[in-house]
Amino acid sequence: MVLSFLNKAYPYIPSKRPAWLNNLFIGIFVALFLIIFQPFDLSVWQTPNKTLKVLGFGLVSFLMPTLFGWLVFKLVPKYQFEDQWKVWKEILLVLGVLLSIALGNLFYAHLIRITDFSFRGFLNSVVVTVLIGLFPVALAILNKYHRLLRLNLEAAKQANEQIAHPPAETHPPKGAESSNNRNSSSEEKLLRFVAENEKDMLEVSEKHLLYIESQDNYASVVFLEEGKIKKQMMRSSLKRLEAQVQVPHIKRCHRAFMVNLSKVAKVEGNAAGYTLSFSECDTKVPVSRNYGPEVMSYFKTLA
C-alpha cells in the first residue's frame, strides 16, 4: 500500500515566483518562529546580539535550499521533473532540502560557538530542522497531490463522457488541407511523413493513425492496416514529423508522443496529468503537464 502510493505520479509544478523568493519566505518564517517562540532552550540562551544571531538561522534557511535547488536542477534532466516525477522523488527532494538546511545550521552554530562540529552535532541539527519543517511540508505535499488528483479525475470523467457521446461528424471546409497532405477521397485524408533523408516516406490514412512515439533518433509511427496494428520506424525526430501534420486533432501530448485524439477511447487522470488509451491496442500514451491543457481542450470542443 505504502510502496504503491510512493510510486504514484506526482505533479512537479514550478512556482510562478522565483525559487529564491520562495526560499526567502522560508527563511523569514524560520527566523520569526525562532524569535517569537524560542524553542529548543533558546529562551535561556544568554549571549550578546542574541536576536541577530537567531536571525542567522533564518539566513541559513534561505541560502541552503537556494544552493541545493540550483545544484539539483543542474544535475537532474528537465524531463525527469516534467514526465517522470513520483511521490517518493518529491519526498526525497524535500528531505534533501531539510538536510542541506541542517548542514548549514551546523556550520553556523559552530561559527557562533553554540555546538561542536561533529557527527552528533549534525544529528542534533537534523532533528531540530526536521521537527520544524517536516510536518508542514508533508501536509503540503499530500494536499497538493490529492487536490490535483481530484481535479484531473474530474476532467478525465468529463472527457470520457464526450468521447462516449460524440457530435455528428462534420467535414472540413474546402481548401483546409495542408500542402503536404492529400485526400484519397472526400472523407479520408492521407498523412505523408518524410524521413530526414528526404527519400523514405510513409503515407497513412488520418483515420488509421493512432500515435507516434519518439525513440532516440527514430520515430515509431503506429497505425491500423486491415484492422491490425502496424509500426513503421522512420529516421526522424518527432518535432520534424509534427511539422508535417496539419490536422487539428493530431497533437503533441508528451515530449516523446504525438497522438490522434479522434482515436482515443478512454482518458484516465492522475495527479501528474492524464493517460490516453485506444480500443485497438493496450498502449497507454502519457500526457505531460505542459501539453495537458491543450489536449483536454480538444475533448471539451466535442460538446
Describe what you observe in this structure:
With 303 residues, the protein is an alpha+beta fold. It folds into 2 domains: 2-160, no CATH class; 170-300, LytTr DNA-binding domain (OB fold (Dihydrolipoamide Acetyltransferase, E2P)), CATH 2.40.50.1020. 47% of the residues lie in helices and 19% in strands. The protein contains 8 helices and 11 strands. It has helices spanning 2-6, 19-37, 50-75, 78-83, 87-111, 119-164, 238-243, 292-300, and strands at residues 182-183, 189-194, 201-205, 209-215, 218-225, 228-234, 250-254, 257-260, 266-270, 273-277, 284-287. The protein has a 5-stranded antiparallel sheet. Strand 9 (266-270) and strand 10 (273-277) form a beta hairpin. Helix 3 (50-75) packs antiparallel against helix 5. The longest helix is centred in the middle third of the chain and has 46 residues, at 119-164. Residues 170-186 have low confidence and may be disordered.
Low-confidence stretches: 170-186
Care to count the β-strands? 11
Tell me, what's the shape?
elongated
Radius of gyration: 27 Å
Structural class: alpha+beta
Biggest sheet architecture: 5 strands, antiparallel
**Separation, N- and C-terminal Cα atoms:** 38 Å
Looking across the biggest beta sheet, what order are the strands in? 6-5-4-8-7
Order of helices and strands: HHHHHHEEEEEEHEEEEEH
Tell me roughly what share of residues is in helical segments. 40-55%
Indicate how many domains the architecture comprises: 2
Estimate what percentage of residues fall within beta strands. Answer: 15-25%
**Mean pLDDT metric:** 85
Number of helices: 8
